[in-house]
Amino acid sequence: MSPGPSLIEQRLRVLAWLATCVFALCFLRAVSLTIWWSDFLQARGRSQHVQRVRMPPERGPIVDRNGQLLAISVSSGDVYLQPKKFDPRNAANVAHALNLPVEEVLRRATSSASFVWLKRNVAAEELDRLSQFNVPGVGVEPVRRRTYPFGHLAGQLLGTVGVDLQGLGGVEAAYDRFLRASEAPERVERDAYGRRLRRDGQVRTRLQPGARVELTIDASLQRVTEQHLRAAVEQTHAKQGLSIIVDPHTGEVLAMAHYPFFDPNDRSQATADHARIRAITDVFEPGSTFKAFVAAAGIDQHVVRPEERLYCEGGRYQVGKHTVRDHEGYGWLTFADVIRHSSNICTAKVGERLGPRRLYEALQGFGFHRITDIDLPGEKAYPLRPWEKWARIHLVTTSFGQGVVVTPMQLVTAYAALANGGKLMRPYVVRRVVAPDGSVVLENRPHVVREVVSEETTREVTRLLELVVEGGTGKKARLEGIKVAGKTGTAQKVEPGTGRYSPRDRVASFIGYFPAEAPRYVILVVIDTPRTATYGGLVAAPVFKEIGEFVADRFGLRLATAPSLPPPVLTSGTPSLRTVSWAREETLLGMPSFLGLSLREALHQARLGGWEVEAEGWGFVTAQDPPPGATSAPDRKLRLRLEPPVG
Fold it and tell me: Could you tell me which of 161, 110, 105 has the C-alpha nearest to residue 135?
């Protein structure tokens, strides 16, 4: 009998058998993974390293009515940091390049995460500085950034965008779906840490451009309006101010200025109040500017005539337990003089003749019961108190603009109806939206909301408002050689929390239109809580004059009023370039003004007159030689100095 296997041999056989089983299992597993599970595992692998991400689209530009760029997307980058690869000794260089505190860079460098964002939406010049240091552990993710070349110019109107380039306010939000276009999916590869892998040194992106939004705003007019508004608010130590300019025949908003300004490039330095479009969100008591609508209703309803004499009670009028006062103790005045001198008492008497229902319906007709439906987000309106609930004192005070609130846009739209013959127009700030292929995908056109009063009534009211400027409370709004129709307003402010009128705080305003015989521009100026003076005729009317003088020079309105010259031609309410002969203009008025024009506009104007131009600087014309009004130079050489916009 042969001896059995030794213990060692038995163990070797067991190990061999186990090894064979393990090998067989591995073989079967490999076959299973490569044949039966192949598609599933490949898909899992791709999902971990290759993703379909939603890339932000190339946001379309926003331009003014003349094609001037107001908002555009530029190349930028998000800077990230990998703490494990970063040497803290480089923190000072990185902080300097990115305008960050060194402590912030060091804090992020000590993070336990493998990947942290250091700064988002970094400007191109900062990226250039960073690239010079070539710091290990610091990288850049290319992105697009929204920028506003003129800073605060029309900042509230334009609005701003978020980190993902979504519109957050103003035109950016209202027309976001056109500016963003459609998002473009992109396949990107990522490493184990989730970072994008680069190919050929670049991240491959594919962006679809958005549409171009063309505004009704005139950038030069907006700039000048902002400059004069800022000066007035600062000189009077006021809380804030705003101004709106519209074309009364189309409803196009040509300028909408707010001060304090809002720079969409630097939202960190502005408050929410500064960013709000107060022209459509905030309300105020219109004061005596409201008297024009009482006059229009009274004349249209045949309850008063301009030449009719009214007794103004010597400046004190008892209404129940209330006393209505005038700023002067007037006796008998024609209704024309009532408007000229802004008598509260006699305007209230006309309101009483109309009665609650007719005055209420007239104010509704002018649009004071609802929003104007302007194409901007956030518009508000407060309805009028139902006429059935008006006591006599409500009828009286409403007649001179007390106890009723309006938005600035409501007020300027209502005055536009007086200027255009009685048609209430819907205001708008965007003329059209143009796709990248040049097709027009949206176009706003003038829209008549309703007929408010007759054309004859508006002519009568315009004559009354001319008297206000010629020899009444609005004398400081007069323009040389141009007839202006307008009205001052000075309203008490209600003290927060008490509901009582403040003995000191006022809202000063002036609103008017010109040329009075054929109005083309309506301008509203509102100064909130001025301290050096409080009356609209002293505070707001001069701002109207300064803006109006620029408009008159810019668009040749003085020429339009000369009887021997044809008026400038308007197309769809657009202020056109001067269509009269430059030789005749220079003969009558001397050298035309180029002040406030962009270089492109100035060169176009100069070519019409056969001038050789020498330009210095960039931006807008701030000085010219020969100066406006001077005798033309015989060598036909024009020297222009341009400067960038302030702020």
Answer: 105
Residue 138's DSSP bridge partners are 81
Q: How far apart are the C-alpha atoms of 264 and 269, rounded to whole Å?
A: 10
Q: Which residue, 569, 570, 568, 547, is CA-closest to 559?
A: 568
* Residue for token pair 């001069």: 542
Q: Is the dihedral of CA 625, 628, 629, 635 positive or negative?
A: positive
CB neighbours of residue 496 within 10 Å: 7
Structure tokens at 275: 């960013």
Burial of 283 (0-12, 13-18, 19+ CB in 10 A): middle
pLDDT tens digits, residue range 9-68? Answer: 777 777 888 888 888 888 777 777 677 776 766 666 655 554 444 555 578 999 999 888
Residues 96 and 129 sit within 8 Å (Cβ to Cβ): yes
Strand pairing class (212-215; 62-63): parallel
Whole-prediction pTM value? 0.75
Per-residue H/E/C for 168-198: CCHHHHHCHHHHHCCCEEEEEEECCCCCECC
Give, as one character, the DSSP assignment of residue 85.
Answer: G
The span from the CA of 390 to the CA of 401, in Å, is: 14
What distances in angstroms separate CA 275 from CA 111, 261, 263, 556, one per listed residue?
35, 8, 8, 34
Give me the residues paired with residue 507 across strands: 491, 528
Tokens representing 325?
Answer: 């006062």
List the structure tokens of 438.
């040049």
Beta strands 448-451 and 116-122 are unpaired
Q: Which of 52, 50, 80 is nearest to 141 (CA)?
A: 80
Residues of the chain falling short of pLDDT 50? 1, 50-53, 198-206, 560-589, 646-647
